[in-house]
Design goal:
By secondary structure, this protein is mostly helical. It folds into two domains: 12-75; 89-132. The chain contains seven helices and no strands. The radius of gyration is 24 Å and the shape is elongated.
């Protein structure tokens, strides 16, 4: 039989902050987590929360643990930096110069940049790098 787990004590100010986060935070997952904490405080079990939010039991438990450890900050998304960029700012400027010379020849610019830097990438990566500038 699974162990019952609830958020036991919440001050009035914490309830108000959670309700405000639930109503107006721009991040959907943060609003969802705030609602889960509020419902847990009202006596909803992890199984019930799992059915409401359609996520795994461990996910709900993790949300509650993060809230207990860090408060409202624990409900925010953690940073996910992703893969580091292939090209430096100077190399992107070099690519921009190559594209300005022949705007319709991205393959030629790609080959010239690869010869200059020794870094291979696809045309989509080059387009994405150019969009960021």
């Amino acid at each position: 039989m699974p162990r019952l787990r609830f958020i036991q004590t919440l001050s009035e100010s914490a309830k108000e902050q959670l309700a405000e986060t639930y109503r107006s935070n721009p991040d959907f997952t943060c609003r969802q987590r705030a609602q889960a904490v509020l419902l847990s405080h009202k006596g909803y079990t992890i199984q019930q929360l799992q059915d409401i939010f359609d996520v795994d039991r461990d996910t709900i438990s993790h949300w509650l643990s993060r809230f207990e450890q860090s408060g409202l900050d624990g409900l925010q998304n953690l940073s996910r930096p992703g893969r580091p960029p292939i090209y430096t700012e100077d190399e992107i400027q070099q690519l921009k110069v190559l594209i300005d010379q022949e705007p319709r020849q991205i393959k030629q610019a790609q080959a010239a940049l690869q010869a200059a830097t020794g870094k291979a990438s696809c045309a989509t990566t080059l387009k994405r790098a150019l969009k960021k500038t």
